[in-house]
Every structure is written in structure tokens, then in C-alpha cells.
Amino acid sequence: MSLADLPVRLADVEDAAALLEGVIERTPMAHSRALSALIGSEVNLKAENLQRSGSFKVRGAYARMAKLTPEEKARGVVAASAGNHAQGVALAADRLGITARIYMPLGAALPKIAATQDHGAEVILHGSAVDEALVEAQRHAEETGAVFVHPFDHPDIVAGQGTLGLEILDQVPEVDTVITGVGGGGLLAGLAVAVKARAEQLGRPIRVIGVQAENAAAYPPSLAGDALVTLERVSTMADGIAVGKPGQLPFSIIKELADDVVTVSEDALAQALIFLLERNKLVVEPAGAVGVAALLDGRLQQAHPDLGNTVVLLSGGNIDPMLMLKVIQRGLSAAGRYMTIRMMLVDRPGELALISRIISERDANVTGVDHTRIGGSLSMGDVSITIDMETKGHEHCREVLRALEAEGYHPVVVH
Questions:
Q1: Which of 221, 222, 230, 326 has the greatest number of beta carbons closer than 10 A?
Q2: Which H helix or E strand runs over 390?
Q3: Boundaries of each ACT domain copy (predicted)?
Q4: Which residues of the chain have a pLDDT value below 70?
Q5: Beta pairing class for 365-372 and 382-390
């Protein structure tokens, strides 16, 4: 299928960009020296986590809602989201003077709920996942006549998200590869339309690659079978891309234009968040860090050895502080910089002091100790101890474990 035959074209993206003028921020590019050294070519990070409402979603939401007729605007809008689309719709509704009702799943992060309400939208908590909230939002639209603003499956949404592609090419005209996260597919589809059309004008190829969390990856099997696949279960910390079924419209574009869709593990996601905090001083939510995760774990380079000049889109920064605490601990553990061990001891004076000495002599820092004599699996005279410690990498962890084993202990790594 040619670019001219697609349901969303470059002209649609350019029209959306005109609508968004003065509404959104032109987010900056952040060069990553560490990632550049890792892949052997330049890597820049498109910091859309610094966008108004904290993510790219306002682009599509405003582009869709600004084109409503006066009669449609008067009926109000309804949407469903775990958080980012909710905030985008709420912000757009506030700017356009439209009443908005947003359905969010019961487990939605409190900061995302509060931010959506702060823009004046009514928030209704419904269902355990976004898919259930979507069904309820559509039911409300049918019953009341409110305009349903889909998070990804609409031409105006796709065109609005595609404006990021225009910005990326303006800021890094020499780009060879653009990498972004994928949920329902609106962002990847819009980016692909803009980037591939501009690449055709430039007369050179530019790759567009999507990344999904491996526990919420409906696109690889859908693309392989050329038909939409619905996942039975979705479980990932990346709630912004926790979508169980691709959108029909984005899928029709992605299968024609995207060069690849790869997956990353939860541990890789956690490490990517730590990396962005430490190296680039950027707060990014898990869904926004999947592209960096794909580079850090090396899967992308294996599939595409010559990525060339690369731009990774950091699509959002709306992370719940409670989730961030958990993610940081998981990321440090995955990197070998934090270790929790559990082992059995004989209950006698000096035993804990001996263990502490062994650990401190290996230059590890104990941050927490849980010591119990009571439990169904404990024999008389036994003690169960759990120790949290800061370490300096995987080899350092192994060194600490070997030292404990040399003294006759049997430590088990919890995480």
C-alpha cells in the first residue's frame, strides 16, 4: 500500500500540527552519551515526558476535539484511560470549553486521577483494567450522545500523535532510526506516517521501530498472523501501554510502515528508569522508557545491528511515586546494586555480628535486617534472617555470597 492510500496521510499530520500551534510544547531533545557509546552511533532522547499534561496524549486528544462541530462540543466528550489519555482529553476539553467525563480503572494511580480532575474533568472509576473502562465509556456515549474520544483508534488521534514525527525530523534531520513504545498503536502509526512520508521526500530510508512490554505484547502475534490478536492477560508496570488488543486503524498502518516491533522484560524496564534518572536527570514512566530498555538489554541491536543516528521517544513522565519506589528497588536489584538474601542461623549470641562483619568486609552496606524465631518451618533453636544490602554490581553480589558460603552459611537470594 502506498503512503497516499493510507487512512492517515502526511497532510493530515501537518493539519494537526497547525491546530496544535500554541497549545502544546515543542519538547526538547536530550543527547545520551552513554547510549551513544553503547550502540556506536548518536542517540538522542525526545523528552515528551516534559509535555503539557505529562505525555504525548494531548496532541491526539486536542487534534480530535478541536475538529468537533459546535453541536458535538455541546454534547460533551467521554473517554477511558489509565491516566495519560485522560489528562490529555481533560486538558483539551478545558482549552476548548467542552465538558468531559473520563472513565478510569479502579487501580489508576492517584496522581493521574488528581491531575485529570484538576483540568476540570469528571472522573468515574470503573473496572479493573482500561478495556473495561473503555466499554463503560462507550456505553455512556451511546446513552447520552456524548462524543467518545478513543485513545488510539481514530484518524484524528493518529494524526495528532504523528506531529511528534515532524518535530523529531526538524530537530534531528539526520535521524536514521526512530524508536517508540506501543500500546494500542496510535503513536507508532502516526509517527510512521510522518517519518516515512518525510523520508520519501528526502530520498533516504528512516526506520521506525515499536517496543512493547513482553507481558502486554499484542502486536508481534498480530503482525505475524496479519490479524488482530487479543491477549488473555496483560500484566506490566507500564500501565500506559497495557493494552490487550491493537486498534484496527493503527494496525492497518503499522503493518504497512513499521520496520519492527520488539519486546522488553519488566527488569529491563526498571533498569531503564534508573538509567534515565541517573544519566539524564529525567523522570519517565515505564511506558515512556521502553525504547531505552530495548537499547540497554541489547535485543534491538541484535535484530538491527546498524541503527545509525537514533532518536528514542520518551512518551510520558506521569509515574506514581509509590510505583517509582518499587521500580527503583527492582531496577537496582536487576543491576546488581541492591540484594536481599534470606538464610537460616543457629540462635546463639554473636551470630548476627559475625554475618555483619563478613558483609562489611566485602564492602557491602546493610540497609535492613529482619530477624525472626517464630515460623512453621523453623526448628527449635533456629532463626530466619533476611538482610537487605547495597552492592556494586553482579560480581560484587557473587563475592558477598561466596564469602558467606565459605563460613558455612547457605544464603538464598530473594531479589
A1: 222
A2: strand 382-390
A3: 340-415
A4: 1, 373-381
A5: antiparallel
Cβ contacts of residue 89 below 8 Å, gap of 6+?
A: 57, 61, 65, 77, 79, 81, 100, 102, 121, 149
Among 3.40.50.1000, 3.30.70.20, 1.10.10.10, 3.40.50.1100, name the CATH number for the domain at 3-56+155-331: 3.40.50.1100
d(CA 308, CA 210) in angstroms, rounded, equals: 16
Q: Round to whole Å and give the CA distance between 210 and 248.
A: 16
In angstroms, the CA 398 to CA 280 distance is: 29
- Report the distance separating Cα 21 and Cα 35, nearest Å: 32
pLDDT computed for residue 211 by the predictor: 98
Do 336-413 and 3-56+155-331 fall under one CATH topology?
Answer: no
| CATH entry, 58-148, from 3.40.50.1100, 3.30.1120.10, 3.30.70.100, 3.40.50.720 | 3.40.50.1100
315 is catalytic: yes
Q: Around 336, how many Cα atoms within 13 Å sit in the side-chain half-sphere? A: 10
Per annotation, catalytic residue among 32, 222, 315, 333: 315
Give me the catalytic one of 57, 112, 196, 245: 57
Q: Answer whether 89's CB lies under 8 Å from 61's CB.
A: yes
How far is residue 333 CA from its own chain's centroid? 19
Spatial CA neighbour of 184 closest among 101, 34, 334, 79: 79
Task: Please state, in angstroms and rounded to a whole number, the distance separating the CA atoms of residues 189 and 205.
Answer: 17
For this structure, is 326 an active site residue? no
Residue spans per domain, the chain: 3-56+155-331, 58-148, 336-413
d(CA 63, CA 159): 8
Q: What is the pLDDT of residues 91-102, one digit of tens each?
A: 999 999 999 999
Cell for 152?
488510539
C-alpha 91: how far from chain center: 21
pLDDT digits (tens, 9 = 90+) for 27-57: 999 999 999 999 999 999 999 999 999 999 9
